[in-house]
TrEMBL record:
NCBIfam families: UDP-GALP_mutase (TIGR00031). This is UDP-galactopyranose mutase. It comes from the Bacteria. It comes from uncultured Solirubrobacteraceae bacterium. Gene3D superfamilies: NAD(P)-binding Rossmann-like Domain. The keyword Lipoprotein does not apply. It is an enzyme of class 5 (isomerase). GO terms for molecular function: flavin adenine dinucleotide binding; UDP-galactopyranose mutase activity. Belongs to the UDP-galactopyranose/dTDP-fucopyranose mutase family. Residues 151-352 form the UDP-galactopyranose mutase C-terminal domain. The keyword DNA repair does not apply. SUPFAM superfamilies: FAD-linked reductases, C-terminal domain (SSF54373), Nucleotide-binding domain (SSF51971). One of its GO terms (cellular component) is cytosol. Its EC number is 5.4.99.9.
Length: 382
């Protein structure tokens, strides 16, 4: 086999795998993919543990989107199973719905509010209206006031990000809706379903093509000088690609504590798939019991993940604020000069993206590559 590839792709998560699939099937390209981990799927990787319970190796991954295009694309590789994620938070000794909704307010304050208007009036009495929402503290306090902000957001956010919400872009806490009705779903998207056979099965099918070669447990630097390639797709951290020459971009990491327990009655342990711990005094942020979301509703074992935020470890979360954006922009300027490299995905673009957004970004990136003439249907580089 020749060691000449049209494209070398670094990273076998959504961004890398979608580019590989598109370039191989739409352009006839020969593609080599590498990942330093010993598996494909990136952070979405899942596997069956020794008890036969499906576990998401890097924390709970729930698929939700408003994009028909993304659903249509992924549906080539999977069937779906309906699942709406629900979360409770431990607050004042109770488990109450999170996102905050009418039930949350009634249960915490011993009220019996019945309409959206009544709940809105409750928030309005406490809200601190602002002309300009500057950060993740403002985005909550302006709508529901300081007390609910302190109970649900401040401690959780300080643990997760090692920064106060006032030091984070408003988009971080704005991910969580603030509701006046009794909708207790975590997400509001039109499409909320899980892949019927799990996530790894999607990647297996996506990469099952004679023109795609996958090498796991392989660093970019292991192959960089060993193979020839026309184009490089980089889905790892952008600062790593440029040798951290302007300094390290900060990422938040997590340590996962895996807990397996017997459930001889076949039942589940947690009241909902995820229990959040907003108190700063609890050292972890949330516990998730996978069987709620994977469809294994009856099983004689159950497996849970407890998440402890860390500053060292795998780069899981880019940190959205002005300072990190300024540093990212310096790297992005270098990237813009590199016609020979395509930067795509959560780490390469330093964006806090959900799976569906990465799928959308990868599809758009492929379309741009074709439109720019850098790749063409013949499989050669222009
Ligand atoms: P990744 O999946 O990070 O893939 C990048 C790959 O590149 C990695 O496998 C890495 O090992 C490899 N790599 C990097 N550098 C190199 C190198 N130099 N050499 C070789 N290999 C390299 N999204 C949702 O939609 N719903 C959720 O519920 C959800 N939950 C999440 C929970 C957690 C704890 C985390 C961390 C993320 C969650 N996400 C969720 C986001 C989701 O994981 C990402 O959007 C998606 O996986 C990003 O895909 P990617 O291809 O950009 O990056
Ligand atoms: N958040 C919070 N309290 C919660 C849940 C979320 O303060 O109970 C904040 C926190 O800053 C978190 C952000 O909202 O990082 C986004 O939450 P999400 O559940 O979307 O985080 P992810 O699943 O991406 O870790």
């Amino acid at each position: 086999m020749s060691n000449r590839y049209d494209t070398l792709i670094v990273g076998c998560g959504y961004a890398g795998s979608i580019l590989a699939e598109r370039l191989a099937t739409q352009c006839g390209q020969r593609v080599l993919m590498v990942d330093r981990r010993d598996h494909i799927g990136g952070n979405a990787y899942d596997y069956y543990d020794e008890h036969g319970v499906l576990v998401h190796k890097y924390g709970p991954h729930i698929f939700h989107t408003n994009s028909d295009k993304v659903v249509e694309y992924l549906s080539q590789f999977t069937e779906w199973r309906p699942y709406e994620h629900r979360v409770v938070a431990s607050v004042d000794g109770k488990h109450v719905p999170m996102p905050i909704n009418r039930t949350t307010v009634n249960e915490l304050y011993g009220l019996a509010l019945e309409t959206d208007e009544e709940v809105q009036a409750f928030y309005d009495e406490r809200a601190e209206p602002m002309d300009f929402i500057r950060n993740s503290e403002d985005v909550v306090v302006a709508k529901v006031g300081r007390e609910l902000y302190e109970k649900f957001f401040r401690g959780y956010t300080r643990k997760q990000w090692e920064r106060d919400p006032s030091e984070l872009d408003k988009s971080v806490c704005a991910r969580i809706p603030l509701r006046t009705n009794d909708d207790d779903r975590y997400f509001g998207d039109a499409f909320q379903q899980m892949p019927a056979d799990g996530y790894t099965a999607i990647f297996d099918r996506m990469l099952d093509h004679p023109n795609i070669e996958v090498r796991t447990s392989t660093e970019f630097t292991d192959v960089e000088d060993q193979v020839e390639y026309g184009h490089l797709v980089w889905t790892g951290p952008i600062d790593e690609f440029f040798g951290e020459r302007f300094g390290k971009l900060p990422y938040r990491s997590l340590e996962f504590e895996l807990r397996s327990e017997p459930t001889p009655d076949g039942g589940l342990k947690l009241p909902r798939a995820t229990v959040n711990e907003p108190s700063f005094d609890v050292p972890y942020t949330r516990t998730t019991e996978y069987r709620h979301m994977t469809g294994q509703l009856e099983h004689d074992w159950t497996t849970m993940h407890v998440e402890y935020p860390r500053s060292e470890g795998d780069p899981y979360y880019p940190i959205p604020n002005e300072e990190t954006q300024a540093l990212y922009k310096r790297y992005a300027a270098l990237a813009a000069e590199r016609d020979d490299v395509t930067f795509v995905g959560r780490l390469a673009r330093y964006q806090y993206l959900n799976m569906d957004q990465v799928v959308g970004q990868a599809l758009a990136t492929f379309e741009k590559l074709v439109a720019s003439g850098r790749v063409e249907a013949s499989g050669t580089r222009a």
